Task: structure prediction
Amino acid sequence: MDWNGVKTFLAIAQHGSLAAAARALGVNHSTVYRRLQAFEDEINSKLFFQQGNQYTLTAAGEELFSQGQSIQAQFDAIQRSLVGKEQKPSGVVRITAPFNLANQVIPVALNDFRRHYPEIQLEILSTNEPLNLNSRIADIAVRATSHPPQHLIGKKVCSYPWGFYSNQSYLKKVGAVRELADLSQHKLIGGAGNLLDLPAFSWLEKHYAANITTRCDELTAMSYFAESHHGLALLPADQARKGLKLILPVPDIEPSHVWLLTHPDLRKTERVRLVMEALTHHFKQLG
Result:
């Protein structure tokens, strides 16, 4: 049985669609589709029902999924054990981080690191989706969370306060914002999808839902809508940049805490440890 076929099957079952499985595996959509078709032909069994873009398990798929998870866990444990024994600073380190941190913070954080350790290759996976570090899709996760997964190890490296951001020229047209009561006179950019689970956007929905005229499911997209005069956006301070300024802090909202996380099996892997140290040093300087 082709192990690539098993991995592809498990990824689709875990994520529910070909597109999400492709992102998790780091391959394209057509590769996932081709592997699934070949695997179903190989075992002569249909594993999924398809409805639109969503894939749900058949009875045969459910049986294979239960067994496949156990096999995958054993393969992943072997791989982590072998990688964890490496002590030389070379090889690939995969880092998953939210879009804005991957774009603006991590390149700067690892600038000097690149000069000191040229044999360590970096792969940056820009996504807000939680990736499974058990499966070695990523070695280090940079995540903004108040509750990091208990099976990972790491540390909180900085916190970003929340506030309302806008393009300065927008405010010249519609007036200043000096206190929260002024928000009722402005168009607001709110969250959608998983963002609505964050305390900041629960607060915004509770107090100013009537003023929300645009919604985004990702913070960086939200910040660019604010910069393009669509209204005020509630954002953490890491989104501040030229063209997007803090208009009104909101101290009542809990700050966004940034954690650096890795799998316990990789904590002594030299190349992973060195990258973790470089990132920690830079984030600590940010506050």
